[in-house]
Amino acid sequence: MQAEEPPNTLTIVGTGDERVYYNATTNGRFEAGSAADLVDAEQPDTVSNTSAAGSTAESGVDDFNFTGQLTDLRVRGGPVRVYVNGNRIDPAAVPDTTVSPLNTTAVLTIPAGERQQEAHPQAGLDVSASLALENDRLGGRYQRLLLDERFNDIESPALRQTTVGAAAGVIERGIERLSTRQQSSIAAYNNGSLTAHEFLRDLAVIDERAGQLSLATDRVVARSQSTPGATVGGQSVSSWAQDRDLKLATLQGPVRDQIQEALNGNHTDPVASATPSGASRAVAESGEQRQYPTPLPVYVETSNRGVMLATVVDGEYYRELSLSRQRNATGDGLSDVDAIFNRVAELYPWASAHSRTTGLTGSRQSELSGITIGHSHGELTTFVNLSTGRVVAEHQRKTLGSVPTAEPVNTTKAGVRLSVERTQPTGPLHLSLATPDGEPIDGTVHVDGGPAIRTGTDGERWTVAPDGRATVVARANNETVRVRLPPQPS
């Protein structure tokens, strides 16, 4: 049986009269394309499973097919253009994003070589965490009321300017503390000092405190309106606040919001909570089944200085990733709005081409720019370092019913058919159990050793696909069925 051709293409085009030398690696595998010359060239190209290297002739072209995602790409020599799946990319940006072979938006990734942890923890009702979060909310409200009181007691414009500066300093120091705490939490989780649940709890606390600091920046802006010409560090107060909100946004995310809900006991799963362990089915007076708090499954990846979280809640897929190492990376700066949008279009070609709404946040003095793109599958917000053109953080939301999937991988055993439909690594994963005739089966499914997922009476569920190869195991009607997934959907 002939193996299928890898779904992605890497094309290297020399555009001058000098050779272009390159070396590329992937977390999948490489195969030579039609333009690669492994034998007859003066300097033959080489392919060795996860790597491809060689050089183009003057004004020449080399191409390779590959699975997975590019983890490194280095080019030198003459002028060059590099394309992935027909979309031009900046080699220096690899591995900022991976272009999905499916028709959906690309995603920021943690390179496989930098990944330290990969896990499927759950965030559940945690009374102490819930109290800590509520304490942070009350503390933030108190600080805002205190700022109001101080402003109301001051009539001198000079003293009001001083108060604005002092409040801004408190916020600046708060942002620095949260950034440090996040890096410490990542390090502790990576070295085993924090459990996965404790790590999720820490990220939820950081998210809440960042949100409170964001509200504080808004309050500083509001109170400064009565002080004409008020500034912070030479910026207008509104520009300062906008830039700090961008920094705070990289310490927050849509998955952390869902984790907070779960820690507060507000996450319910009608299927998983249908019959709570050790209790009979509870029915409300109306006859409707009572909803019990259930743990929220979260897929987690970390590197030394980065964290990715993904989950599925109420028909929506949420994903967030922060790579603080990108803040100090090198690259070409973005000097104006057109350059920013061009960079985003380069990194997210599908989302840019299918955008319904686009928003840009950030000032000329900002380190970051936040670009939000609404598209037919959901919404993308990407945070770009303006001095390097690299993405430092990303938030995504997708409606599961609108996300395209690859062809299903099916296995049938003793009347139980397990069907798995994938999108992209760490993307939505559709699971279904049915009889060969299509009748749904209520069973449990484990993805790569993760927690049990119950399909319910309709026989299907969505979850998050792990990165790389995975084994899906289903149990139903006293049978066990397995499906092995390749690293990248074909």
Name the CATH architecture of the largest domain. Up-down Bundle
The total tally of domains equals: 4
The first-level CATH class of the largest domain is given as Mainly Alpha
> How many β-strand runs?
31
**Quick check: average pLDDT?**
85
Low-confidence stretches: 275-287
Q: What does this entry look like structurally?
A:
The protein has 7 helices and 31 strands. The chain has 490 residues and is of the alpha+beta class. The chain folds into 4 domains: 8-95, no CATH class; 121-266, Butyryl-CoA Dehydrogenase, subunit A, domain 3, CATH 1.20.140; 298-404, no CATH class; 409-485, Immunoglobulin-like. The strands form 8 sheets. The chain has an 8-stranded antiparallel sheet with strand order 12-17-18-19-23-22-21-20, with helices on both faces. Strands 3-6-1-8-9 form a 5-stranded antiparallel sheet, with no helix packed on it. A 4-stranded antiparallel sheet has the order 4-5-2-7, with no helix packed on it. The model is unreliable at 275-287 (pLDDT under 50).
